[in-house]
């Protein structure tokens, strides 16, 4: 997948040179500038007292704004890392293209990226990935009245996908000419309003969207594409201490049942195959 824009009830705390929005994931620290920038384990932070996390809103169930606060599966996992580091998580909403280039990390805007981001060899050239924490598939979602029954029926159809994502890449790889949308919400709204006849998007996003009865009544998944995708968190290349802290959280959460609990809270009935194996 993979991104996050627009999810905000405007808890504007700061703006940056790239016009990011700072959103609160938990309780923010008021003295971050004066606090030490070295957290537990010797992890260096871009701002003292907080773990600054770049994301791209909205991307439910991984991160979206609920009741005035950014919440979701990714947010909950990163909260565990922040707790271990002895700081609070602060979330900065940024354009998704920054996740491919690592621009926000290299500019010391954020300590890490968390945006339901698929690990790819191309992206590894610009950022370092954590161990995989989620195995995702791509879904083909259509209107029940469309007559579309599988991905094979999409030729000559108007297909939507989120820009700069692996869903868009998959569509192009099938010689489709996808209509690109800025966020996952915009993709699904494009289908709802008839701008496109089908969408290719990460299946976990569809799972959450179809929980709404009106959506489930009108739309359905006609294909689930196993593209071998795994999500990872990103850090600036060479930031080994923060990477180790993230990997420890992922490993421990899977071992002690926390991962399963968070999965059921944010995504649905636990699917063990979705808990991507951690790298050795």
Task: Please describe the structure with a list of short key phrases separated by commas or semicolons.
29% helix; alpha/beta; D-Maltodextrin-Binding Protein, domain 2; Solute-binding_3/MltF_N; six-stranded mixed sheet; signal; Transporter substrate-binding domain-containing protein; five-stranded mixed sheet; 280 residues; ligand-gated monoatomic ion channel activity
Report on the architecture of this protein.
By secondary structure, this protein is α/β, with parallel strands linked by helices. It has two domains: 41-133 and 232-268, D-Maltodextrin-Binding Protein, domain 2, CATH 3.40.190; 136-229, Periplasmic binding protein-like II (D-Maltodextrin-Binding Protein, domain 2), CATH 3.40.190. Helices cover 29% and strands 22% of the residues. The protein has ten helices and 13 strands. The protein has helices at 73-85, 97-101, 103-106, 121-124, 166-173, 184-192, 203-209, 213-218, 240-256, 258-266; strands spanning 21-24, 50-55, 64-66, 69-71, 88-93, 112-113, 128-129, 134-143, 159-162, 179-181, 198-202, 219-231, 234-235. The strands form three sheets. The protein has a six-stranded mixed sheet. Strands 10-9-11-8-12 form a five-stranded mixed sheet, with helices on both faces. Helix 5 (166-173) links the parallel strand 9 (159-162) and strand 10. It is globular. It starts with 20 loop residues before the first strand and ends in a 14-residue tail after the last helix. Mean pLDDT is 86; it is low at 1-22 and 24-32.
